[in-house]
Every structure is written in C-alpha cells, then in structure tokens.
Amino acid sequence: LVIVTALADPPPRTGFIDRCLVAAYAGGLRPLLCLTKSDLASGDHIAAEYADLAPTVVTRFDVEPLALKEKLHGKVSAFFGHSGVGKSTLINTLVPGADLRTGEVSAVGKGRHTSVAALALALPHGGWVIDTPGVRSFGLAHIGADDIVAAFDEFAEAAEECPPNCGHLGSPVDPDCALDTVVDDTATGTASGRRLASLRRLLASRAGAGGTETG
Q1: Which of 14, 20, 184, 195 is most buried, judging by how many CB atoms fall within 10 Å of its CB?
Q2: Residue 130: in which H helix or E strand, if any?
Q3: Could you tell me the strand order of the sheet in which 76-80 lies?
Q4: What does 172-201 look like in DSSP terms, one character per residue?
Q5: Quick one: three-class SS letters along 76-93?
Q6: Domain boundary residue, one of 117, 138, 159
Q7: Which CATH number does the domain housing residue 99 bear?
Q8: Is residue 145 in some structural domain?
Q9: Per-position pLDDT tens, the chain of length 215
Q10: How far apart are CA 151 and CA 93, in angstroms?
C-alpha cells in the first residue's frame, strides 16, 4: 500500500497517515510512505516521525522517482491518498503513456477528484500500480487492536498474555498490558521502545476513529 502524502499544497495530515498504516498492518499489507512535492517543503520531519513504522521515499515532480521505482519493482502496489497529493502525476511518470488526468488544489487546500475509479497499470520493468480515486474520508471501525499488534512480530507473543479486551495502550488506560514487558520502561529510546510508542500511537488513532474521519 503506497500512502501518498504531499508535503505542501495540500499540507500533510498525519492522522490520515496513521489510519492508513493501521489498515495496512491489519490487512497484512506492506506499507510504503511516499512524500511528494519535496520541492515545496522538506520531508525530513515526517520521515523521522514514521521511521519505525514504514519505509519512506521522498519525491519531487521535476526529478525522476528512482527510489520509488526500485520499491515498486515486481510488486502490485495500490496508490492511496487525498485528492491533489500527486498520485496520478506519479503514475504518469512511472508508466509512460498512461496519460492519467491530473488536477489542481483549491484555495482551501482541497484537491479535485481526477480519478473516478481504480485503474491497474503494468510497470514497464515488472509489477503493477493501481491508481485509486482521491480519499475524502477513511474510517477504522472494522479493525480491532489485536489485528494491528499481530503485524508487529516482537509484540505479538506478549499480546497473548494481555487481559481480555485489552486495547494495548498501556497505563493508565490498559495498566495490565503485557506489551510493556517486552521493553524496559527506561529504554524508550531504544528501537523496541520507539516501536512500542509508535505502535501505541496507531492503536490510539484506531481507538479515536471508531467512525469515519477526514483528517
């Protein structure tokens, strides 16, 4: 799942990225965060924020996206994101002759829908990309906390020791959550500690998005 997010025009929405990652992990998909329009704003802070959750590629429309091409080679990849972030423009670059319509962003930061249906296109050197319509809203009511934790191998076994209906958020919401046994409380700066903090951020996003959100 290629989560396409513009660094500007429209500005990035981390809540949307979080919910996409939740859906990807719960569905057994490998997420890739693609940051576009790096000629307008830096992507360093976003890439650092998601370093423990998903690989990231940064693109700009005047430079060939070689790193993205390498990540997509031989895979079937769906491009997912808000209208106006550059999904169709990227695919036009990746698939010469695709000629997908592209649109502009309005004065209030809303992109116009240019794709009205999902379209699969073969990459020249192997693999497929799927262009999807721009997202207006995206909810997580169908996804459970255990579905997400299961995608994190280092925490999945400990989660089996949690009490029933544990949301895995840690204290004070889930004081008996067994995920805390995987990392020492003083080791939040370690890779495992950062991963647990990132995982819990996704879980909190899911818990706060029982309905459908647009952010």
Answers
A1: 20
A2: strand 128-131
A3: 56-58, 32-36, 2-6, 76-80, 128-131, 119-122
A4: TTSTT-GGGGTS-TT-TTSHHHHHHHHHHH
A5: EEEEECECCCCHHHHHHH
A6: 138
A7: 3.40.50.300
A8: no
A9: 999 999 999 899 888 898 899 889 888 899 999 999 999 999 999 998 898 889 999 999 889 999 999 999 999 999 999 988 989 889 889 998 888 755 444 343 444 445 567 889 999 989 999 998 877 667 777 788 888 888 888 888 899 999 998 999 999 999 999 999 888 654 556 667 888 988 998 898 877 754 444 45
A10: 32
In a domain, 143, yes or no: no
Burial call 4-13: b when 16+ CB within 10 Å, e when fewer: bbbbbbbebb
Considering the domain architecture, whether residues 15 and 100 belong to the same structural domain is answered as yes
Q: Write down the pTM of the prediction.
A: 0.78
Separation CA 58–CA 37 (nearest Å): 8
Tally of CB atoms within 10 A around 128? 15
CB 66 within 8 A of CB 35: no
Cα(96)–Cα(19) distance, integer angstroms: 31
Q: Are 25 and 32 in contact (CB under 8 A)?
A: no
Q: Cα–Cα distance between 196 and 184 in angstroms, integer?
A: 11
Count structural domains, the chain: 2
- Distance CA(55)–CA(51), nearest Å, equals 7
Q: Could you tell me if 47 and 125 lie in one domain? A: yes
Q: Is the same domain home to 93 and 194?
A: no
